[in-house]
C-alpha cells in the first residue's frame, strides 16, 4: 500500500467535492440544464479573472488557449514581442513561429523577472509590434512577473498584452481589467483544482478589434465561433461537459472563500516552503521574484536532483517536480497551488528532509518542518 501526495505545478490535487461532481450521470449539452451550469461556470471564471470581458472555455489543455490567443489575434508576417524567461515563455515563441509570425524576444535570465522598462524600450523602437506575450508565473523557474507594471507600459501603445496565467490564475492576484491585460489564458489543472482538459481565454475590446483583421488559419479555436455560440449560452462544438460540471463546482468553492483569502493562503504556503528549504541549507532558484505558486529550489552540490525527485515519488509517494530543459537535475520545484493546506506543505518538506538525509546532505533533521511550523504559527 502507498499513499500518494501531489505537490506538482499541474496537475494539482482535487477536492472531493470536485471528484464527486464528475461522478454524476452525464447531461446533454444542448439543454437548459447544461446552460445553467455553463453560465455559472462562466460567471465564476469572470470572477477569478477579475474581468467584465467574455471568457471562453475550450476543450484543450492550457496550451490550446495559448494557441487560440495567437491565431485569433494575428496574421502571418506580423511582428510580436515575447518575454522569454523560461520554458513557457519559449512556448509563445514556438507557437508564433508555427504561424509564420515574427517573434522578437526579450531574453530574461532564467530565475529573474522581466524589467518592464525593457518592454517599453522595445515597443518604442518598433511600433509595428502588434502584441506582447508574457507569463504571469513562469512555472519552469518559479518566477512571478509584475503584470501590473507591464500593463501600464503596454496600454498606451497599439500593442495588445497577452498573459499566460495558466499556473497563476486563482492562486495569485491578476486583475485582468484593472491591469489592462487584453488576453489572459489559463488552464484547469493548476490553481483551479480541476483535472487537465480545459483551456480558458478572455478578450478585451482592444483584443477583439485586433482579432477582426487576423488572417491566421483557425477552425476549432476560432473565437468568433465561440462568441456567436455564447450569445445563445452555447458552445460551437461538444464541450467537455463533465469537466465544466466540475469547474462550476470548483468555482463555487473559490467564491465561498473569496479571492483575497485564497491569495493569502497561497502566500502563507509559499512563505512556509521558502523558510523551510532555507532552514535545510538550500537556496531558492529565484530569490528576487519567487512566486507564491511554485517554489524552485537549487539542488545542492553533490546531490543528484533527478534521483531526489524519483525517490520521494517512488519510495514515499510524495510527488514534486524536477527541473525542465537546462534546469534538469539542477532544481526541484515544490508546488503549493490550488487545493493545498498547511499539512500538505509539512508532508512535502518532511519527505524532502528524509530523502536529502539519506542522500548525505548535512542539516539537522526536522529543521525544515520546524521553520514551516513557525511560519504557520506566526500567520495563523
Ligand atoms: C502548465 C503551464 C502551461 C502548459 O499548459 P498545458 O495545460 O500543459 O498545456 C503553460 N504555461 C504555464 C505557465 C504553465 O504553468
Describe this structure in words.
The protein has 380 residues and is α/β, with parallel strands linked by helices. It has 2 domains: 241 residues, Type I PLP-dependent aspartate aminotransferase-like (Major domain) (Aspartate Aminotransferase, domain 2), CATH 3.40.640.10; 121 residues, Alpha-Beta Complex (Aspartate Aminotransferase, domain 1). 42% of the residues lie in helices and 16% in strands. The protein is built from 13 helices and 14 strands. The radius of gyration is 21 Å and the shape is globular. The site of pyridoxal-5'-phosphate has 14 residues, from α3.
Which ranges are low-confidence, i.e. pLDDT below 50, for 5 or more consecutive residues?
A: none
SS class:
alpha/beta
Main β-sheet: number of strands, strand sense, barrel status?
7 strands, mixed
Integer-rounded radius of gyration: 21 Å
- Architecture (CATH level 2) name of the largest domain: 3-Layer(aba) Sandwich
Number of helices: 13
User: How does the overall form come out from the CA principal axes?
Assistant: globular
Strand tally:
14
Q: State the order of secondary-structure elements, H for helix, E for strand.
A: EHHEHEHEHEEEHEEEHHHHEHEEEHH
- Please identify the top-level CATH class of the largest domain: Alpha Beta
Give the strand content: 15-25%
Task: Give the ligands present.
Answer: pyridoxal-5'-phosphate
Amino acid at each position: 500500500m502507498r499513499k500518494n501526495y501531489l505537490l506538482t505545478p499541474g496537475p494539482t490535487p482535487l477536492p472531493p467535492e470536485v471528484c464527486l461532481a464528475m461522478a454524476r450521470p452525464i447531461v446533454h449539452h444542448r439543454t437548459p440544464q447544461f446552460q445553467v451550469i455553463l453560465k455559472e461556470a462562466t460567471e465564476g471564471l469572470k470572477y477569478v479573472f477579475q474581468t467584465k470581458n467574455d471568457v471562453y472555455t475550450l476543450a484543450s489543455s492550457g496550451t490550446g488557449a495559448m494557441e487560440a490567443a495567437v491565431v485569433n489575434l494575428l496574421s502571418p508576417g506580423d511582428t510580436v514581442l515575447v518575454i522569454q524567461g523560461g520554458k513557457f515563455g519559449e512556448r509563445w515563441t514556438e507557437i508564433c513561429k508555427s504561424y509564420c509570425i515574427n517573434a522578437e524576444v526579450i531574453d530574461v535570465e532564467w530565475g529573474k523577472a522581466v524589467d518592464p522598462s525593457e518592454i517599453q524600450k522595445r515597443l518604442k523602437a518598433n511600433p509595428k509590434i502588434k502584441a506582447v506575450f508574457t507569463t504571469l508565473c513562469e512555472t519552469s523557474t518559479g518566477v512571478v512577473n509584475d503584470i501590473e507594471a507591464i500593463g501600464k507600459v503596454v496600454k498606451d501603445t497599439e500593442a495588445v498584452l497577452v498573459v499566460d496565467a495558466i499556473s497563476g490564475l486563482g492562486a495569485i492576484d491578476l486583475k485582468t481589467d484593472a491591469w489592462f491585460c487584453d488576453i489572459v489564458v489559463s488552464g484547469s489543472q493548476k490553481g483551479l483544482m480541476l483535472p487537465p482538459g480545459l483551456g480558458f481565454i478572455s478578450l478585451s475590446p482592444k483584443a477583439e478589434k485586433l482579432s477582426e483583421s487576423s488572417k491566421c488559419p483557425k477552425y476549432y479555436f476560432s473565437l468568433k465561433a465561440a462568441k456567436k455560440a455564447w450569445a445563445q449560452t452555447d458552445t460551437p462544438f461538444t464541450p467537455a461537459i463533465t469537466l465544466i460540471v466540475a469547474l462550476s463546482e470548483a468555482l463555487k468553492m473559490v467564491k465561498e472563500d473569496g479571492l483575497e483569502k485564497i491569495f493569502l493562503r497561497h502566500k502563507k504556503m509559499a512563505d512556509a516552503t521558502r523558510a523551510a528549504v532555507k532552514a535545510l541549507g538550500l537556496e531558492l532558484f529565484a530569490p528576487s521574484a519567487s512566486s507564491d505558486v511554485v517554489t524552485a529550489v537549487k539542488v545542492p552540490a553533490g546531490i543528484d536532483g533527478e534521483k531526489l525527485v524519483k525517490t520521494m515519488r517512488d519510495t514515499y509517494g510524495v510527488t514534486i517536480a524536477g527541473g525542465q530543459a537546462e534546469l534538469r537535475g539542477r532544481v526541484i520545484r515544490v508546488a503549493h497551488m490550488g487545493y493545498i493546506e498547511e499539512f500538505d506543505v509539512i508532508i512535502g518538506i518532511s519527505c524532502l528532509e528524509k530523502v536529502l538525509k539519506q542522500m548525505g546532505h548535512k542539516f539537522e533533521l526536522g529543521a525544515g518542518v520546524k521553520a514551516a511550523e513557525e511560519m504557520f504559527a506566526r500567520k495563523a
